[in-house]
Amino acid sequence: MARIAMEEWEDKDSLFLLESWARDGLTEAQIAGNIGISARTLLNWRKRSIPIFLALKKGKEVADFQIENALFKSALDGNVTAQIFWLKNRRPDKWRDRQESKVDLTEAVRIIDSIGDGD
Predict the structure, then answer these.
(1) What is the pLDDT of residues 47-101, one digit of tens each?
(2) 10 within 8 A of 52, measured Cβ to Cβ
(3) How far is CA 45 from the centre of its chain?
């Protein structure tokens, strides 16, 4: 089996293909499979090659932006699930499933201490 060199994927057309696969929603494991390398090798390429890193990043950003817009439009169109998802992620201080309550035990400790002093 021929070894695939990272440099083969740093030309303009190959970088465009990487970006396209990321934009289409492929995972890095799937992209690696398309290239014919392991996911670990692609991770190493990303660390060593700025052009490959940027192509994958740009493609993912486009896909994420499209999904964010679709979610937002769906929420505005009345999709309750999308509205809940949006609010839980954008306003977790108000909309998370579990609300945090802060209890000040100072007064309770003072009362218990004063009861103990009466003995």
Answers:
(1) 999 999 999 999 999 999 999 999 999 999 999 999 999 999 999 888 888 766 7
(2) yes
(3) 21
- Number of Cβ within 10 Å of residue 31's Cβ equals 20
Any idea how long the chain is?
119
- For residues 91 and 84, give the distance between their C-alpha atoms in angstroms, rounded to a whole number: 10
SS (H, E, C) the chain: CCCCCHHHHCCHHHHHHHHHHHHCCCCHHHHHHHHCCCHHHHHHHHHHCHHHHHHHHHHHHHHHHHHHHHHHHHHHCCCHHHHHHHHHHHCHHHHCCCCCCCCCCHHHHHHHHHHHHCC
- State residue 47 phi and psi, 5-degree precision: -70, -30
Q: Tell which residue, 107, 85, 105, has the closest CA to residue 96.
A: 85
Other Cβ atoms less than 10 A from the Cβ of 51: the count is 16
